[in-house]
Design brief:
Elements (H helix, E strand, L loop, with lengths): L1 H28 L1
Length: 30
């Protein structure tokens, strides 16, 4: 159960990091 929750959190964190990276690249592009 703990492992499953960790996996879900990891997936969520990955999406957040990817979104932040996209924002940084977009800001740098402008």
């Amino acid at each position: 159960m703990s492992h499953k929750g960790k996996h879900g959190y990891g997936g969520f964190a990955f999406i957040v990091v990817l979104f932040i990276l996209l924002v940084i690249v977009g800001a740098a592009w402008v």
